[in-house]
């Protein structure tokens, strides 16, 4: 006998029907409840909208919140401008401008930060390897050489570098090992040795050896731009340049700054208006060569009612080149010794614990 099928539904199908007929708790818009919850909380705009699954709704809310934020910022900006204008009319000091937070002004405190007026630092400087230079007892005399097979771009860079360093001379490598060159330079009273390296016609390294007792600094050289490639560049004169050293604040940075200073004479000729800058920022040393120019230009006088122009002297900078960036790879005690040398500083991964920690 064939059993007749009973009418009605099984418990599982009934449960499915009940779930389908129940009202949705998340809302028919695909995430409006999550949107209300996200917009109510704090955090960035991305964090506020990250809980919405519907892409269209998420995008709409994102642009809405962004527009509100820009509107609030513009309102605050106009308010500050009005306060500054009112203070200027009354002859009062304008409200202070907010300080922008950067990696430089939020860097982690370092125990080796140098105070130039510290007696201990001054005593160390009077007894270090560069003391004779700063006492004008030993004028700078720099020997520059290259790797074994320099390319054409190397010679162009050398010609411009010789203009930057007025006390430098170039000697061809001629296949001599570096230790023999160090000995050769020391016997001829050179104070410093610079060796420039290149790989596949790309200049990528610079070795600086202070003679006769060191130290030896090895740098990675990058972002080289020759003077001929700089728009509106000038030609260097034979005057001795001024030297600017910026932000060499730690003991290591202070030592490097003195090492760079020993390459230049202590009596710059200000008539030439040449200046060489070593600017340290986030442990990258930016090297620039400029001439400052004074020009007489006509400027509109804001106080004059008839709009007359008056003559004023305006200063500007003209880059001479070359420009490049140095990154310290190692600092070694004494002169160059790749096998038995003792290093004062080497980069270590365990020391780089934060993006806001710098060594120079």
Radius of gyration: 33 Å
Oligomer: single chain
* Element string (H = helix, E = strand): HHHHHHEHEHEEEEHEEEEE
End-to-end span in angstroms? 96 Å
Low-confidence stretches: 1-9, 11-32, 34-39
What does this structure look like?
It is built from 9 helices and 11 strands. With 360 residues, it is an alpha+beta fold. It has a domain at 119-351: Rossmann fold. Strands 1, 2, 3, 4, 5, 6, 7, 8, 9, 10 and 11 form an 11-stranded mixed sheet that branches. Helix 7 (152-164) links the parallel strand 1 and strand 2. The chain starts with 10 loop residues before the first helix and ends in a 15-residue tail after the last strand. Mean pLDDT is 85; it is low at 1-9, 11-32 and 34-39.
In brief:
By secondary structure, the chain is α+β, with helices and mostly antiparallel strands. Helices cover 29% and strands 25% of the residues.
Layout of strands and helices, then pairs:
Elements (H helix, E strand, L loop, with lengths): L10 H11 L10 H9 L4 H5 L5 H36 L28 H7 L5 H4 L7 E5 L5 H13 L3 E3 L7 H10 L4 E8 L2 E9 L5 E10 L16 E5 L4 H11 L12 E8 L2 E17 L8 E11 L3 E10 L10 E3 L15
Parallel strand pairs: 1-2, 1-3, 6-7
Antiparallel strand pairs: 3-4, 4-5, 5-10, 7-8, 8-9, 8-10, 10-11
């Amino acid at each position: 006998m064939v059993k007749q099928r009973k009418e009605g539904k099984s418990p599982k199908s009934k449960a499915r029907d009940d779930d389908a007929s129940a009202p949705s708790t998340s809302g028919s818009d695909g995430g409006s409840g999550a949107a209300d919850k996200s917009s109510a909380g704090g955090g960035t705009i991305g964090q506020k909208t990250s809980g919405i699954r519907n892409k269209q709704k998420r995008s709409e809310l994102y642009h809405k919140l962004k527009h509100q934020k820009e509107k609030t910022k513009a309102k605050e900006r106009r308010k500050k401008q009005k306060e500054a204008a009112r203070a200027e009319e009354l002859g009062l000091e304008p409200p202070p401008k907010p300080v922008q937070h950067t990696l430089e002004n939020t860097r982690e405190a370092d125990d080796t930060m140098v105070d130039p007026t510290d007696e201990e630092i001054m005593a160390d400087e009077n007894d270090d390897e560069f003391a004779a230079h700063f006492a004008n007892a030993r004028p700078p005399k720099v020997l520059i050489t290259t790797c074994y097979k320099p390319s054409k771009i190397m010679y162009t860079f050398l010609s411009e570098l010789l203009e930057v360093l007025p006390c430098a001379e170039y000697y061809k490598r001629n296949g001599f090992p570096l230790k023999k060159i160090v000995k050769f330079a020391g016997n001829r009273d050179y104070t410093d040795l610079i060796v420039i390296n290149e790989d596949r016609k790309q200049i990528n390294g610079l070795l600086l050896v202070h003679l006769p007792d060191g130290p030896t600094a090895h740098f990675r050289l990058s972002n080289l731009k020759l003077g001929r490639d700089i728009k509106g560049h000038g030609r260097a004169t034979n005057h001795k340049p001024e030297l600017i050293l910026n932000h060499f604040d730690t003991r290591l940075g202070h030592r490097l700054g003195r090492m760079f200073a020993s390459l230049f004479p202590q009596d710059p000729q200000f008539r030439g208006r040449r200046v060489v800058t070593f600017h340290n920022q986030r442990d990258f040393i930016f090297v620039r060569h400029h001439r400052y120019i004074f020009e007489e230009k006509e400027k509109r006088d804001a106080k004059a009612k008839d709009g007359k122009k008056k003559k004023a002297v305006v200063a500007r900078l003209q880059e001479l080149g070359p420009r490049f960036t140095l990154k310290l790879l190692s600092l070694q005690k004494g002169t160059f010794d790749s096998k038995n040398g003792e290093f004062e500083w080497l980069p270590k991964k365990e020391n780089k614990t934060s993006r806001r920690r710098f060594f120079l």
